[in-house]
Write a structure and sequence with these properties.
- The structure is a single chain.
- It contains 31 helices and 21 strands.
- A 14-stranded mixed beta sheet has the order 5-6-4-3-8-7-16-15-14-9-13-12-10-11, sandwiched between helices. Strands 18-17-21 form a 3-stranded mixed beta sheet. A two-stranded antiparallel ribbon has the order 1-2.
- A hairpin with a 2-residue loop joins β7 and β8.
- α1 runs antiparallel to α3 and α26 packs antiparallel against α27.
- The longest helix has 36 residues.
- The chain is globular.
- Keywords: Membrane, Transmembrane, Transmembrane helix, Two-component regulatory system.
- It comes from Streptomyces fumanus.
- This is Bacterial transcriptional activator domain-containing protein.
Length: 956
Amino acid sequence: MWMRRRTVGDFVKAFLAFVVLVVLVLGVPFALATQIGWPLPSGAPSLDWLQREITVGTFLNILTVIVWFAWAQFTACVLVEIKAALSGVGVPGRVPGAGPSQLLARQLVAALLLVGATAASLTPGLAQLGQQHGLEGNQQPAVAAAQQTPGIFAQQEARTGAAAGALAEQASQAAADARGTAEHGDTKFYRIQPPEGRHHDSLWEIAERHLGDGRRYKEIFELNKDRVQPDGSRLSEASLIRPGWIMEMPGDARGGELVEMPDEAPDVSPRVRQQIDAYARTGDQQQQQQQQQQQQQQQERGDRDSGASLPEQRPAPAPAPAGQEQRSFGLPEALLTAPLLAAGLLGALGRRRRQALWQSALGAVGGRRGMEPPTPTGDARDAQDALLVGADPDGVRMLDRALRGLAASLAGESRALPVVYAAWLSHGDLHLQLAQPAGKPPAPWRPGQDQTFWTLARADAERYEDTDTAAPYPGLVSLGTMDDSRLLLNLESVPGIVSLSGAEADRAAVFASVAAELATNGWSDRMTITLVGFGDDLTPLAPNRIRHLDGTEALFETMEAETRQRRGALGAAGHDSVLTGRTGPAQHTRWAPHLVLLAARPSDEDAHRLAELAADAARLGIGYLVGTDSGDLPGAAWEMEITADGRLLAPLLGLELDAQLLPAAQRRAVVDLFAAADPGSGPDGGPGNSPPFLVDISEEGRPAVYARLVGPYEIIGLDAPDPDRGAQLHEALALLLLHREGVHPRVLASALWPRGVTDDVRDALLERLRDWLGTDPDGSPRLRTDATGRLTLARSVVSDLDVLRSLYYEATQGKGADNRAVRGRLLTDALVLVRGPLLADRPGDRYRWLTHEIVDAQLPLLVADTGLALSAFHLEKDRTEKAIEALNAALRTAPADERLWHELLRATHATGDPERLRALAADLTGRGGARGLPPRTEALLDELLPTWREASPAAG
């Protein structure tokens, strides 16, 4: 077992710490007791004692009592620190009034236990006696991670040597296991295969085939990095491997292409066996050096961080060094590294665009209406791409379901919601930090590192389903990351004001991020966000949530009235806080949080008025985040500072975060996206009328590649790809076909690999896609890159959706607008293309990026508009049956479009057959179910068939 060796100095420090502890804990009381005496009196004091003369002896006795008290306090500190270190609790309790004493005790105990833990790690497995390997062993990393979750009150100096020693033991055991595999002769090797056609081997694909997860390619790379290959070269980059090279594989690798050690591989040629044998021998020393370097680095991190860092919540791109902005491909890092904020903004933007489409459809005149939302350009386009890449909707969904599930469980046990100060997200695990102990959490939650932490493992969180319970903690908002964990602060629970100091521009970036996430997050139902002195341009993000005030006078007038109203409402309802009311009968109509963001420092008078308002705010569900030039704001309960390099500091809370920011440029770009999606922003008060890509619908315009997306997915004009990669290539092509304006390479990679992928794997896929699509007769590739670096398709690659849009446009605004015969033919051809919903047979585990699209709303509207236009075309000549046929064809794809049912009722009424109309009314009533029919549909039925309610009493 390899371990980090302790120096003579370490043992000298431990010995001196031991001596000092013995002298202070045992020597001091022994000396006092033998030389001066016990501090306790031998009998009850009398009044004569007060009348005695004060002498030097009196002062000595008083000083002796003080020394006894100091010794007792220090001894208590030592006991508290030893208990915390041995029990594994990262945050020891505080001894009242013992700041310097407890710090000295902590340093002495840490110095002593550091060597003790190292010595214990040499004991051969005594701590593992009676334990089973398997489930319990697999749970240890999760428990360790939970214990190391940074607490909002954790002081940076509370780093004990016990955790460092445990980390050294784990690293040593991992190294021993790795070498034991090689020593027992079961090491596996893989020989890089020569290319087959256009397919080239890669470490990602090797890991996918033999380790079950392509992301484990890094393990193969680390095992083989810089080792000499049979051709004399070395592996230096994961993407640069050559046929004939030999790769040592992790011990759990499986698959027929792997070989064991040469003596056990009779099917391998002697030459290859000799190469593998030589490679295995020369790799031992290199492997040991690499392992020792890795373990030493990990040990050093352990000494600094008091334990292993928590895994990332979601793969996020690292910030590009100065002069290397191309690593980000021009996308803003602020949005790429804010997964919860990006998911909220993306979801809200999709809802806004759908709303614009429906409003445009209902306000259509003469069959002309906006079909396409405007295509973003410039910074807005980059911001949209960054949202698509950075968003983590699964994380938002998990957080929302977990919190609502917790509230439902507590309500079922008739328990009140605990006050939560903060939440930490780490690799899908959720840690809630409570204001005070609240007993045992309901299953599947479990206690965390101490009584003020409740923890939910990711696997347990994924079992939660949607519930109609009110959102319990809507005031949670992301502040940044610390040790790969993301912190969400519950603004409405803070007992007072949260102040934020720093430069004005840096504060504004924090305020904008907080406001944007609160306005669009997916774990709240309702709230009010009042912005004072900034953010008037943020209103388009959520007009129903965001309110902007110009100054503090308006703020005080508003908040004083609301504070009084909330106090009275709580008293009338018999609740002591909004939390106890959120699980009651009025949960959906009351107790929504009100969060105030005041960007500029208030005057001293206003600051005191604000402090008085905030004194009782946490109980009322009101939170205040106030900006200040310095950290001395009156009434501030928690003080934070944002630095010029993007660090969010809160020394008294033990926090040092990489702040989540929304700088001015990105804020403007995001607001532009929402403003462009507003129903009244486009031509004629709606989105654009012209589709972004029109195709030549004449016979001469026959495409070289034709993909059928409306219905089952089919491709005409291309050879079938390799079955192992066919599904991925089809999905990539569908994404490009639905975005003729171009797709950023990182957006494509994020869509196909939602959990992240390396650049070399993405680039390999693009090469395969480019080869599969081929070239046009003039030699130009059908997959191209435009001036902005985005991927686009040649005009010779067309989908049926492109043709459908073009046919409708030509029929209503092009050649068919003034030619009845052409209009009828084009509309008929368009409706024939519709074979069902978009990508009807797509597998459930793919095409998840469609949830961010609005094409699922566009297609039914487009089909409905086509059916309505064709119906009107036939009714002009009294061809009622043809009109009914067109409407029924459109209803198969757009069954929820009320306009189609209205026209179908009118057309059926025009047949003069009351029984047929009555049957259609009964069908409509059955579709309405318990909700009944929409008011406009009922009004139309009253006009066309006054007796319809008699035939359908349930509908009435």
